[in-house]
Specification:
Length: 75
């Protein structure tokens, strides 16, 4: 298992990667070393390691305001 910050440009943090992972608020934990790339323009359907990268990387959205409905509401 490896842990990466959400802004690290590696396969494990890319929305196209089809490996097992846990997505937390500030980090992503890769639960598999290997997964398949799901990006049509990248390494489409090729096995990649969690720490690989390419120019088609697209990260998960970053929540900039921690106050949203249900958790930490300012009401």
């Amino acid at each position: 298992m490896s842990t990466y910050g959400k802004q690290e440009k590696v396969c494990a943090t890319c929305i196209y990667w089809k490996g097992k992972r846990g997505v937390e608020f500030e980090y992503i934990e890769a639960r598999d070393e290997q997964g398949k790339c799901g990006c049509d323009d990248g390494f489409c359907d090729i096995n990649t390691m969690d720490a690989c990268s390419c120019s088609d990387w697209k990260g998960f959205p970053v929540v900039k305001n921690q106050y949203f409905y249900g958790i930490g509401s300012m009401q």
